[in-house]
Amino acid sequence: MASPNLLPVDMKIKVFVYGTLMPGECNHQAYCHRQIEPPTLGYVLGQIYHLQYFGYPALAIGEDRVWGYCLTFPPGFSLEHLDSLEDYQPGRSPQENVYDRCWAEIFDPQDQVMTEAWLYRMDSRKIEQYGGIYLPHGRWSGKL
Q1: What is the secondary structure of the chain as a DSSP string?
Q2: Is the separation of the CB atoms in 42 and 138 below 8 Å?
Q3: Distances 122 to 4, 97, 105 between C-alpha atoms, Å
Q4: What is the mean pLDDT of the chain?
Q5: How many CA atoms lie within 13 A of 68 on its CB side?
Q6: Domain formed by 4-134, architecture
Q7: pLDDT at position 142
């Protein structure tokens, strides 16, 4: 897996979304309007939980297929807007961040590696603290 810190500056920015940033969900239009390619269905390995008290999901380390979309933004796109939504600040301790921004492999529906992208993941202890409900089918919807 390539290090995201070594990517060329003219490279498109890819972000995997599995919650409120997905097409049709409440934050998609406000935060993802700068996409330059159509969203692509795919999955990452992990475990997804519904945070019932907050109304959005969290992704933890795991081996389930967690379905979502890979979004592509133009070269030079700043992740600060998304980081703010996810309460993530680079350089802040993991205990202070709600989510951690990670680099991960994204798989297509035929189980082939499609690309690599940023995603926001939450520590399993935080998920438990926030009353997370495990979603074994690997999909979240704001219509839960």
Answers
A1: ---GGGS-TTSPEEEEE-STTSTTSTTHHHHHTT-SS--EEEEEEEEEEEETTTTEEEEEEEEEEEEEEEEEE-TT--SHHHHHHTT--TTS-TTT-SSEEEEEEEE-TTS-EEEEEEEEE--HHHHHHTTEEE-TTS---TT-
A2: no
A3: 19, 9, 17
A4: 92
A5: 31
A6: Roll (3.10)
A7: 84
Neighbours of 39 (CB within 10 A): 18
Query: Can you tell me the distance from the alpha carbon of 32 to that of 115, in angstroms, rounded to the nearest whole number?
Result: 19
Domain ranges of the chain: 4-134
Q: Is the dihedral of CA 21, 141, 134, 1 positive or negative?
A: negative
pTM of the predicted model as reported, rounded to 2 decimal places: 0.91
What size, in residues, is the chain?
144
pLDDT (0 to 100) of residue 8: 60
